[in-house]
Amino acid sequence: MHALVTGGAGFLGSHLVRALLKEGAQVTVWDNLYTGSRKNLNEVAGAIDFHNLDIRITSPENLPVSRFGKFGVIFNLACPASPPHYQKDPIFTWETSVLGMHNILRIADSHGAMVLHASTSEIYGDPLVHPQPESYWGNVNPVGIRSCYDEGKRAAETLAQDYVRFKKADVRLFRIFNTYGEYMYPDDGRVISNFCIAALKDAPVPVYGDGSQTRSFCYASDLIAGILSLQKLPREKYDGPVNLGNPREFTIRELVGVLEKVTGKKLQVKNFPLPEDDPKVRRPVIEKAQRLLNWTPKVDLEEGLQKTLAYFSEEIKNAKSK
Amino acid sequence: MHALVTGGAGFLGSHLVRALLKEGAQVTVWDNLYTGSRKNLNEVAGAIDFHNLDIRITSPENLPVSRFGKFGVIFNLACPASPPHYQKDPIFTWETSVLGMHNILRIADSHGAMVLHASTSEIYGDPLVHPQPESYWGNVNPVGIRSCYDEGKRAAETLAQDYVRFKKADVRLFRIFNTYGEYMYPDDGRVISNFCIAALKDAPVPVYGDGSQTRSFCYASDLIAGILSLQKLPREKYDGPVNLGNPREFTIRELVGVLEKVTGKKLQVKNFPLPEDDPKVRRPVIEKAQRLLNWTPKVDLEEGLQKTLAYFSEEIKNAKSK
To answer: How distant, in Å, are the alpha carbons of A199, A211, A255, A270, A277 from that of A273?
Structure first.
């Protein structure tokens, strides 16, 4: 099996590349290194075919040849995914999600490849239904500061589903809820990386709003297992987007408590105003993934945080020694 | 003033072209004639520069020269807009809305042109808030049979608004609610054309569901006046999408009654099941257009229907005499 992973030098992309190699796949990686980094792939650099490519402008007409030949499956993970990253250049983000999906679907069509596309819980916006099943249509501001990502990802889903419906393409959408783990970006502005870095540096942890907003945190290895199960699902059983995430819900204040337990430190909190359009709750209904994929997250927050803290601790040491 | 009208051979596009010419503008029209027709522009054919062009693939890099030179303003009306038209080839529809907007914004940027973009009440989906102000985020299925249009138009709004926010582009969005009048397509499957054609042919009028769903009908000349007012708005006063439509709301059953009054005929009704994801209510809040543009619709439904019936009656005669 020859797999293309777009965004393969990113946080989740690099986890997926390692998991695919372990399964014996040949792996081509496309990444423009906008947020990703080649060092995330250091240990597997020799095994993969890496191309510094931008999916906004890579189409069937200007496709580079992989040393492994045609793609059997494309995992489309290329897109800045954390608010500070995707809001830095919203037009770039929109183009990556929207033009990128348009290109990937046409490339897959020309290779006869399956597509597994990373959608997101952000398509639910600031949800009015809680927790969120796949059938929920979402509550998204079309012209807000998060729209480049939220609407870009929605439009990508739409095109993908119309490829399934009208071109009989094999495209499978999964909606990723908050995920964390090794290879996260320390600067991605999300709560787990913010908190871990602050705790390791004995700085106050930043809490936006009153900390009563909730998030559900899925450890990276669990998420990757879900993606690989979706790939193995018999085609006729796929019937639209699948939520992948951990249904255990924490308020941000509770997260502080868990982190205190894991680090054994009393953490100081620094409060900031809640950003515009920030979702107040977010928790997946994963009944569909459990039923179709026989998948359920296994790693609890304490265990995942321990591993993530160890990774960030090493990263901070490496940065200091440079 | 040199205006480009994309979709200028369509229903609203051709009305806009005639109105712009009356104002003394030079007008270039791009239309791929997917739903539009050159006969809609017969009476002004000599005055305009017509190009058979597809905005999905027309970019600053392959732009045809207009005989009037650079564009001062671009009215982007190119997109199939009625459910049977936009659902016929959903990938084409999505591409027209999404890739088209991407191209138009870059073309406008390279010409230093203002953009007025036709968005739609469909971005509100099947609304949970009634009537719909511009601040309402909508209730749209991202992967349904209407999504190619609804999500395509939402993604176009997103990109446009980010051009305003980050590139300081002069892009103005208006959301069109149901509009009718001369030059409508007899086969567009919308209630006004369906009803007029049926009444003129003494056939039963098709009612989907129980006819209790509501629509608000704006006559074409009113809508065009709104678009032209938005063009003339001082730039600093524009602050996001503006609803344009008639706030007078009718149930479909009431519409039958009005049509009976206008035609003087007792109409037979034929019932059909309600299509998937069909909005149950749709009515604009137009307070923003009234305040910013001093605009309000003037033509009532009876008067508008009389004119529309006269147009369709002539079209039916012409078709028979061929």
So the answer is: 20, 10, 18, 10, 12
